[in-house]
Structures are given as C-alpha cells and as structure tokens.
Amino acid sequence: MSGLKTQQQGDEVLQQHLHEQQQQLQQHLHEQQQQQGECELDVFGEQQQQQQQQLQQQQQQQQQLQQQQQQQQQQHCLSLKRAIVLLQLHYLLQQQPLLLLLLQEQQQQQQQQQQQQLLLQRGCDDGLQADAAALYNDSASSSSSSSSSDRHQTAAVAADNSSSSRQQQQQQQQAAAAVQQADVYTHSQPQESGGVAAAAAAAAVAAAAAAKPQQRQLQQQQLLQQQQQMQQQQQQQQTLQQQQTLQQQQQQQTLQ
C-alpha cells in the first residue's frame, strides 16, 4: 500500500512538473509571438514611412518641374511681347516721318489758300473803290445840268433801287447816308453842270459800299471756316502725338 501511495505521489509530482513546464512553454511561445508581432509592426511602419517619403519626394519633383515649365512659358511670352513691341516701334518710326510730311503739306496748302483769299479780298476792295470813282468821274463829265427836282427824283430812285437789294442794317444806313450826301450836294450847287449825274454816281457809290459788307461777310465766314479747320488739324496732330508718346511709354514699361 505504501508503494502505491508513493507511486501516486510521484505521478502527481510529475504531473505538476509537466503542467508547470507546459505553462512555461506557453508563456515563452506567447512572448515570442508578441515579439514577432512587434517586429512585424515595426517593419510595416518603416515601410509605410519610406513609401510616404518617396511620395513626398515625387510630389516635390513634380512641383519643381511645373514651376520650371511655368518659368519657361513666362520667359517665352516675354520674348514674344518684346519682339512685337520692337516691331511696332520700328513700324511707327518708319511711318512717323510720312505722317509729319503729310501734315506739313496740308498746313502749307492751307496757308497758301489763306494768302490767296486775302489777296483776292484786297483786290476786290480796291476794284470796288476804283469802279465807284470811275463811275462818279464819268457821270460828272458826261452829264448836263438839270433842275433840283430832277436831282431829288434820281437820287430817290437810286436810293430805292439800292435799298431793295440790302439785307442788313449796316447796308441801309450806308444807303441813307449816300442819299443825304447827294441831296446836300444838289442843294448846295443847283446851277453846276452834272448835278444829276453826280447824284446818280453817289447812289452808285452807296450801292457799291452796301455790296461790300456782303463780300466781307462771306470772306470772314471763309476765314473762320479755315481757322476752324486749322484748329481741328492742330488738335488732331496733338492727339496723334500724345497717342504716340503714350504708346511708346507703355511699350517701354512692358519692356522694363
């Protein structure tokens, strides 16, 4: 009986010893598994970090390439703009003398026209005065004496004829003054030969003097029109020069 007990006790001790060994083995395996898992996690984390770094490097390289391409495009655009500006400047420099020559020719033509018109105006005034004097002299030398009533009638007829053709207040005043002068002349010298002709000549002078303001008005209107045209052309020249200067300044700014 004692032998069985000792065997049982020995078996129990063995079983406990085996159980302890099993527990130790399980703990050892568990620890190894944990270590392997940590190692795997570390390896996986390192791989992810490396991949992320590679992606960042690739993105940076792409950004650098894009920046380089943009810079190249900007430089190309600037070179094209400079070429266009240089061509425009060359064209303007070639065209500017032609424009100046055309403007100078127009100014010379206008000045010549004004001088011609002034000469014509002076000639017309001198011609009217000469014609009136000739009429007065011819009529005074070729006519005969008559009564004072005839003189009044001829002067009145001449005044009526001249007043019918007048259109302005100045002309009417000049004709009335001429009639008064003729009346005074006929009353002051009733027996002088050529009194009627002198009155008619005075009326003719008045009519010629009344016609002169119309011609002067026309000439003044023409001169005003020419002056306005000259002013418009000068303004156009100034605007062209201002536009050219502005264009040159803008082009220089773009080049800079």
TrEMBL record:
Coiled-coil regions listed: 15-75
Compositionally biased region (Low complexity): 139-148
Region (Disordered): 139-173, 198-243
Entry keywords, A to Z: Coiled coil
Superkingdom of the organism of origin: Eukaryota
Protein name: Uncharacterized protein
Source organism per UniProt: Eimeria mitis
UniProt lineage: Eukaryota, Sar, Alveolata, Apicomplexa, Conoidasida
